[in-house]
Amino acid sequence: MIRPDSGPPKRARPPHLARSVRKERGLPAKSHAFHLVATVFTCGLWGLLVWLPLWIFRMVFRRKIVTRYYYD
User: Fold this and answer.
1) End-to-end CA distance of the chain
2) pTM of the prediction?
3) How far apart, in Å, are the Cα atoms of 53 and each of 22, 59, 61?
4) Cβ atoms of 39 and 52 closer than 8 Å
5) Between the N and C ends of the chain, which has fewer C-beta atoms within 10 Å?
């Protein structure tokens, strides 16, 4: 038996966004000044053996930004 006062069914409210958190994954960027000074003091060896491979690695594997949403 249907009650006459029931009316249309009520919709559930969408969840309320409490906050969102952004994080970056991957290697952090290092100070260019440190790498430049280390390259000068090691006569270019630091630049060839450390700085250049790190730069190439960062060009191939970009940092990923991840966003996570938290609801009430």
Assistant:
1) 37
2) 0.46
3) 28, 10, 12
4) no
5) N
Cβ-contact 27, 60 below 8 angstroms: no
Q: Where are the alpha helices (DSSP H) in 2-72?
A: 32-41, 45-46, 52-60
CB 70 within 8 A of CB 21: yes
Question: Which residues are paired to 68 by β-bridges?
Answer: 21
- Interatomic CA distance for residues 70 and 20, integer angstroms: 6
Token pair 């191939």 is found at 60
Q: Which helix (H) or strand (E) holds 32?
A: helix 32-41
**Domain ranges within the chain, ordered by starting residue:** 19-71
pLDDT in tens, 44-64: 999 899 888 988 887 887 777
Residues 17 and 69 sit within 8 Å (Cβ to Cβ): yes
Lookup result for tokens 């559930």: 12
